[in-house]
Automatic annotation (TrEMBL):
It comes from the Bacteria. InterPro entries: FPG_cat, FPG_N, H2TH_FPG, Ribosomal_uS13-like_H2TH, Znf_DNA_glyclase/AP_lyase, Znf_FPG/IleRS. This is Fpg/Nei family DNA glycosylase. It comes from Nonomuraea deserti. Belongs to the FPG family. Keywords: DNA damage, DNA repair, DNA-binding, Glycosidase, Hydrolase, Lyase, Metal-binding, Multifunctional enzyme, Zinc, Zinc-finger. One of its GO terms (biological process) is base-excision repair. GO terms for molecular function: 8-oxo-7,8-dihydroguanine DNA N-glycosylase activity; damaged DNA binding; DNA-(apurinic or apyrimidinic site) endonuclease activity; lyase activity; zinc ion binding. It catalyses: Hydrolysis of DNA containing ring-opened 7-methylguanine residues, releasing 2,6-diamino-4-hydroxy-5-(N-methyl)formamidopyrimidine. It holds the Pfam family Fapy_DNA_glyco. Residues 2-93 form the Formamidopyrimidine-DNA glycosylase catalytic domain. SUPFAM superfamilies: Glucocorticoid receptor-like (DNA-binding domain) (SSF57716), N-terminal domain of MutM-like DNA repair proteins (SSF81624), S13-like H2TH domain (SSF46946).
Amino acid sequence: MPELPEVESLTHFLRERAVGRTILAVDVIGFQALKTFDPPATALGGLSITGVARHGKFLDLDCDGLHLIIHLARAGWLRWRDDLSGAKPVRPGKGPLAVRVRLAPDDEGAAPGFELTEAGTQKRLAVYVTRDPGEVPGIAALGPDPLDPSFTVAALKRIVGGNRMQIKGLLRDQKVIAGIGNAYSDEVLHAARMSPFKIAATLTDTQIADLHEAIVTTLGEAVERAHGLAAKDLKAEKKSGLRVHNRAGQPCDVCGDTIREVSFADSALQYCPTCQTGGKPLADRRLSRLLK
């Protein structure tokens, strides 16, 4: 799933390649992806892309005052094409292609653009056309951005104070903190040397400060690594920079202990027992149910 660092990099990528260009057409192939109908997607044709911003995990393309908002969800991605002039029409429901944004040809006749694709059968990629990004429910409900200067230790203390959620779930809750998903919550908690099952309200002031440092540093370093990369290279960069997520069974780079996993119905978390849980393995709840 693309998270804050990847979406931030895509934002910079599109600023460099798409801002100032005119939209020729927006072709919606996966109709389930389009979540709004007024204004219609056809209204974007002929408008210029004047800016690109990020709201949590949402991409926001400002098109002369109308906004094309994109949420890539778990299995979505953005593929830039230097020339879409020869792209063949795609039948709805066939393949992973959901949306194609075609830009007007340049002086050399190439018509660049990008495609939104989604793998798998669970279609969660979402596209909105709106006059105000705040009209998108997911954006309106976002918590503070962890890369914003206003996200201080004091702000984090207010968030965790009295909250009985496990810290792993709290970090992933977009209404609490915007932009962190399954992968970077694992990475943040490893950097903070904190159990994913720790209750947020039990954190001491020192632990809150350590968690804040881990959030800002982990995300900041990931953004820096991804800066300037082409969209097609971001997935590989994310994978190469992870220290615990999706590395179950491998040695921890910090202490050498074996990274372990806890599985859930539709996801899993990874952690290092020595770094995070005092050497004690956490119960794998899915496995425990199977053994009953």
